[in-house]
Amino acid sequence: MTVSLSGKEVALKIEGEFPGSLVESSQENLVVKSDHLLDAARFLKETDGLDFDYLNFVTAVDYYDHFEVSYMLSSLEHNHCLTVKTRCYDRENPVLPSVVGLWQGADFQEREIYDLFGITFEGHPNLKRIFLWAGFEGHPLRKDFI
Q: pTM for this one?
């Protein structure tokens, strides 16, 4: 059975490497500032003992005042997992760095979030709509979509 790592314990390691990079942490997850997301993700993937080499999924939630993007990571070697979150506060032009360079499995999932929420993933190799046609106006999973 996969063991869920404590967000608080992993947060201490990330804060030690990238001071000021975290918003909050709990037993269940940790929230990384969006401008530190790529550094923290690379740290989680490449650090011995953590080795988060597998991205289970990426998903997003619209909370009206911000978007929250969640990444479920697993280590196949150590059989542990962790949920990492980040937030976008700009509804007009939400932007996050793409993690496709670290986990190829994020490719279609970031495109889905782009299509349905309108969050742009900077550095994505092929960021275009995946469900809706190119001329479709709006993003159907936003709470303000009419």
A: 0.96
Task: Please name the residue that has the structure tokens 């550095």.
Answer: 123
The CB density around residue 102, as the number of other CB atoms within 10 Å, is 19
55 and 103 Cβ atoms separated by less than 8 Å: yes
Tokens of 91: 């509804």
Q: What is the CATH number of domain 3-122?
A: 3.30.460.80
**What confidence tens digit (pLDDT) does each residue in 66-110 have?**
999 999 999 999 999 999 999 999 999 999 999 999 999 999 999
Q: What SS3 string covers the chain?
A: CCEECCHHHHHHHHHHHCCCCEEEECCCEEEECHHHHHHHHHHHHHCCCCCCCEEEEEEEEECCCCEEEEEEEEECCCCEEEEEEEEECCCCCCEEECCCCCCCCHHHHHHHHHHHHCCEEECCCCCCCCCCCCCCCCCCCCCCCC
